[in-house]
């Protein structure tokens, strides 16, 4: 036996793994012994393998799956560092989703709204709203759909051969939310019901039509709250106290690459794959579940829902400026759609703008 080889027991003690774990990692190809005695089957490890073994221990503490650890261990230090960064970004994104869900449930179960008019005022107040969809200057047809009402705003961007029917089916399926009593309670149940209806309607509209489907971003306003459902790369923004915030996260391939640190936001904006969706409502029914979120609505909020035909060609500072300058939703929609046209209008462009009532003087 060579001088620098350690039997499995000694090596296990030195690196803080159990012999059982070392045998498992050997069988999985994570950490091969330097030598296996052909007669006894005893495993021997080189002292130089201690660093790899400790890396495995640390990666296990990060809850990295064994397949991921195998990948990292096979890489050089720089590439391994990038891979660990990507893993951690994924963990944080998954945690963020659960955090949103927890916040949603807490808000849902908290009976007293923090802001805004009380329940009795709800029948008195509605959003002032305007919606318009434009084919743009390049596309032969418009596959976007939109709806705006006193409580419901929705935008959908269809794709594939039945894209136009898919987007309008999704929006139509939500319209019942704008009828009847204002949904002061049970917004969660109501939205889930609506999302299920929309997914079914899209399946009916787009099944058998190849790779067809739609995005969907919709906002249900209760007077004191906003319930938002979202899938794909249509977007919702709020203009509040002069600042513009994005309420949705794009479900796109490039956005996940940004989250994992593989692309910068600037690179993503110029990436030819930027329109590839990671999630959408589709005809084959394999739709991922849309995001559901609940926000407080404040008096004087201005909401914008739009398709990517606006957000990819009009930068956010300009969106903010146009929204802030427009005296009412009609003129906001007109100036936004004009701005997309002036930028070449490469895609269908759809905007919904709505104002929450200001505080009574
Ligand atoms: Mn589009």
Q: Could you please describe the fold and organization of this structure?
A:
This protein is α+β, with helices and mostly antiparallel strands and 361 residues long. The chain has two domains: 5-74, Multidrug-efflux Transporter Regulator, Chain: A, Domain 2; 123-360, 4-Layer Sandwich (Phosphatase 2c, domain 1), CATH 3.60.40.10. Helices cover 40% and strands 20% of the residues. It is built from twelve helices and 15 strands. The strands form three sheets. Strands 5, 6, 7, 8, 9, 12 and 13 form a seven-stranded antiparallel sheet that branches. Helix 11 (316-325) packs antiparallel against helix 12. The protein starts with a strand and ends in a 6-residue tail after the last strand. The relative contact order is 0.13. The model is unreliable at 114-123 (pLDDT under 50). It binds manganese (II) ion. Residues 157, 307-309, 347-348 line the site of manganese (II) ion.
Short description:
The protein is an alpha+beta fold and 361 residues long.
Count of domain modules: 2
- SSE string, helix = H, strand = E? EHHEEHHHEEEHHEEEEEHHEEEHHHE
Beta-strand content estimate: 15-25%
The CATH architecture classification of the largest domain is 4-Layer Sandwich
Computed over alpha carbons, the radius of gyration is 26 Å
Low-confidence regions: 114-123
Instruction: State the helix count.
Output: 12
- Summarize the main sheet: 7 strands, antiparallel
Helix percentage: 25-40%
> What molecules are bound to this protein?
manganese (II) ion
CATH class of the largest domain: Alpha Beta
Q: Would you tell me which CATH topology of the largest domain applies?
A: Phosphatase 2c, domain 1
Q: What sort of overall outline do the alpha carbons produce when their principal axes are compared? A: elongated
Mind telling me the CATH superfamily name of the largest domain?
PPM-type phosphatase domain
Structural class computed from helices and strand pairing: alpha+beta
Number of E strands: 15
Straight-line distance between termini: 90 Å
Mean pLDDT: 88
């Amino acid at each position: 036996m060579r001088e620098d080889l350690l039997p499995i027991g000694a090596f296990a003690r030195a690196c803080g793994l159990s012999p059982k774990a070392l045998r498992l990692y050997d069988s999985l190809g994570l950490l091969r012994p330097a030598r296996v005695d052909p007669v006894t089957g005893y495993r021997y490890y080189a002292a130089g393998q201690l660093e790899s073994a400790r890396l495995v221990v640390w990666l296990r503490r990060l809850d990295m799956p064994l397949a991921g650890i195998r990948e990292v261990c096979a890489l050089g230090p720089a590439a391994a560092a990038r891979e660990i960064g990507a893993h951690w970004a994924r963990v944080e994104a998954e945690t963020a989703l659960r955090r949103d869900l927890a916040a949603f449930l807490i808000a849902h179960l908290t009976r007293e709204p923090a802001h805004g008019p009380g329940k009795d005022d709800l029948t008195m107040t509605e959003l002032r709203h305007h919606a318009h969809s434009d084919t743009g200057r390049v596309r032969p047809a418009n596959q976007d759909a939109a709806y705006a009402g006193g409580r419901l705003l929705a935008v959908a961007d269809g794709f594939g051969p039945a894209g136009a029917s898919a987007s309008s089916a999704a929006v139509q399926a939500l319209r019942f939310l704008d009828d009847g009593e204002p949904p002061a309670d049970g917004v969660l149940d109501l939205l889930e019901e609506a999302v299920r209806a929309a997914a079914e309607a899209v399946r009916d509209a787009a099944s058998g039509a190849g790779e067809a489907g739609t995005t969907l971003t919709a906002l249900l306003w209760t007077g004191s709250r906003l319930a938002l459902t979202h899938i794909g790369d249509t977007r919702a923004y709020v203009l509040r106290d002069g600042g513009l915030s994005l309420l949705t996260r794009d479900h796109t391939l490039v956005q996940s690459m940004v989250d994992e640190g593989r692309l910068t936001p600037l690179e993503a904006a110029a990436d030819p794959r930027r329109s590839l969706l990671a999630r959408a409502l589709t005809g084959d029914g394999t739709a991922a579940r849309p995001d559901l979120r609940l926000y407080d609505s404040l008096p004087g909020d201005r909401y914008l829902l739009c398709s990517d035909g606006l957000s990819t060609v009009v930068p956010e500072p300009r969106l903010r400026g146009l929204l802030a300058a427009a005296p009412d939703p009609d003129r906001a929609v007109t100036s936004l759609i004009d701005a997309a046209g002036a930028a070449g209008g490469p895609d269908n462009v759809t905007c919904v703008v709505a104002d929450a009532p200001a505080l009574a003087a």
